[in-house]
Amino acid sequence: MKRIINIAIVGISLSLATPVAVSQTSGDSEIRPYLGGGIGYYRLDDEDFLNENDRLKDDHSAWRAFGGVEFGRIFSLQAGHIDFGETSDGNADMEADGQTISGMVALPLTDTFAPYAKVGNLSWDRERSLGPITSSDSGDDPFYGAGVRLTLTEHTDLRLQYERFTLEDTDLDMASAGVQYNF
After folding, report:
1. In this structure, what DSSP letter does residue 47 have?
2. Higher pLDDT, 53 or 45
């Protein structure tokens, strides 16, 4: 049920971008929709294996796509998809992805530099294997992060951020860079 609710929230959030884009053309510059994407590098620590020798610890890259709405360059709501890819360590393998919804608060210190904090929820799917034994699971877990938004042009921002995701018993610490296009 949580997954259905989260997917509905993501869909509603993204569908709100169209009317906001129309209001943008009528002169309302305080509310701006945006789209973006990025890549990241994460450190994984998965404790749910049979013994300490089979524990999955690995560093790997990920990609994401996101969209949202900014309210006065201070508050924003965002929905997105993140793919953690496939990672392995010996006989242990894991593949995970998910949908995110989050709220962010930025503190614009200058016209081009704004640190921010974010909190949200990750609805994830994961497949793990240890040799011939495979299992799949899914869930919803909160996440948090912090970063900086660097304004490159009127419509383009660079984001550098750190996030902490938890997939039940798996911790993912991810640093990422992304580009955001503001409408």
Report:
1. -
2. 45
